[in-house]
Amino acid sequence: MLNFTIRRLLLAIPTLLFISLIIFLLLTLAPGDPTANLPLSIPPEVKQQIRESLGLGQAWYIRFVLWVKAFYITEPLYLIESLTGWDVYGDQQRVLSWQFRSPVMDIVTQRLPQTLWVVGLAYLVGALIAVPIGIISAYRQYSMFDQIGTFVSMIGFSVPTFFTGVLLIVIFSVWMPLDSFFWLPSIYDTTLEVTNWETFVKQVRQMILPVTVLALFNAAQISRFMRASMLDNLNQDYVRTARAKGLSEKTVVFVHVLRNSMIPVVTVIALGVPQVFGGAIITEQVFKVNGLGQLLITAIQASDIPTVQTLTVIFAALIIFFNLIADILYGVLDPRIRYD
Amino acid sequence: MTDITEIQENASRSQWWDVWDQFKSHRGALIGAGFFLIIVFGVTFGPWLWTIDPTYIDIRARNQGPSFAHPFGTDQLGRDTLARMIKGGQTSMSVGLVAMALALFLGTFIGVVAGFFKKLDGPLMRLTDLFLALPLLPLLLVMVMLFRDTLSSIFGPEMGIFVLMVTAIGITSWMPTARIVRGDVLAIKEREFVLAARSIGTSNQKMIMRHILPNVLSPIMVSATLGIANAIITESALSFLGLGFPPDFPTWGRLLFDSVDYLQQYPERVMWPGLAISFTVLAVNYVGDGLRDALDPRIRGR
Questions:
Q1: Could you give phi then psi for residue B74, rounded to 5 degrees?
Q2: Does domain B54-295 have CATH number 1.10.287.90?
Q3: How far, in Å, CA of A74 to CA of A91, rounded?
Q4: pTM for the structure as a whole
Q5: Of A43, A180, B98, B290, whose CB is crowded by the most CB atoms within 10 A?
Q6: In sequence order, which residues have a C-beta less than 8 Å from that of residue A217 and are 6 or more positions away?
Q7: pLDDT tens sequence across A94-149
Q8: Which of A146, A166, A287 is the best mutation test for B, with the most CBs of B within 10 A?
Q9: A112 Cβ partners below 8 Å, 6+ apart?
Q10: Is A148 on the interface with B (CB under 8 A)?
Q11: In chain B, what are the domain boundaries?
């Protein structure tokens, strides 16, 4: 198992570098000039100087190597230094954002908590709702509960998050009277600091809508998998054996069937995490959460290439990392599919 | 798809009748298919039935609620919402269908080639894995940002963004189809009828066209439905983020994006495009569900 993990880990490094290269090439070789939006009255030689100050003077492969060094070596070193206080970072060039003129990773660490809170909580809530629904739906297949559950998950799966979000805003922020208990804010206030009970309640209330939207979407996907996986296992011979031994129904379902059904579901949950970050881009835009997704959108609109590059690679790294986790989890949970 | 009609004409009871019988028994799929057809007919022939120009600005009739003259109301410039919905539906549906066709073509091609030619299997599957590890939504946003102006100057503002959308969605969503098709081709390649065909000297090209492709048609059809749903949602999402079609060229996502600005005053305005997207995707997903059941011989006939 350890062997396999190390092999996968080593394979992940070239994949990540290659994806970085693809993203870099897409951004570099595409038509368009970062100085194109500057006023026409600026003389060409000054424009050239601006381009060079942005680091655009060199050939693309040199810039790529410099970016790789800055992103994969300097930034982790800086992180280590700021966490532990060891002097490892020195004074090397970090990845700078063109629109903020400050290191991209500093902005990312400012924005990360908002995204993590909303996305993480939504995913957790989604999974916690989905698993019991999947279990009951499969155990009582074709019952009323199953029919309704399947229908609701089909809706949650089909209705895009930007419409559920807007719909919830219409219901809970527009139609609901302002003084009602059920009125919820439609804009996520990130400057709010939780210091006492009142601000805590405020924080909870502003998180309800975005978390519900994302949780509904995640729950729909996971519950479909959970139901299918439970159904696969419920008809197996070992279930009949367990019942024939005289085990209680509770033990059969929750110990024998559930444990085996959870194997694919756990990996699906792991594989879904990066997608959720992608989906959060839209939800953040709906509820005006200034997280990573919103940073990406503003960077794209401002043609801030280093920020776009760094964020996209971070999203890619998340996907690769969680693919790795899913693979390893699969091996840990199911000894039959260990690869060594 | 010509193969299907041929089979139906030749045999009195082909497998496609069994598929249809099974499909009919799935009520959700039947309703979904009906709804999808209505939407397609509505957006295709709608402009003849509802003759108001979607770009006609009648500033005196702005921000109206539903009435006989404007069943869906009017927007902030007095443009008729129903006409704009029909126009937007045309764009959304054509983006969905064309992007799906492109993704399906790419996926089937790569899947068949990878499954059929052993030497290409490794590299092509690594390529598929690589594409699966790309962050798709951010990349789509980046592609739109980078290529919008260039393509607009080549094809014109409307056609340019259409080409960009379709290509971007097409080349980022072929991977699941390729994987499924490859798996099926690998299994079919080992069957006796392929050996028989090979022994009478069938060329590779004929083998793929006559023997392999018709046998992998069912997974391709299922991924086609999922592909439409995916493409419609992706296009609307991009338009919703303001990185899609230009404002005077409505799509359902764009209409939703524009209506969000008037959420406080006219909350009902977001409903039309939102419901149109949701119901279409729901219908397509139900059709996909029904097709999957109908095309699975293990479920069929039970």
A1: -130, 165
A2: no
A3: 9
A4: 0.84
A5: B290
A6: A126, A156, A157, A161, A164, A279
A7: 777 777 778 888 888 888 888 888 888 888 999 999 999 999 998 888 888 888 98
A8: A166
A9: A291, A292
A10: no
A11: 54-295
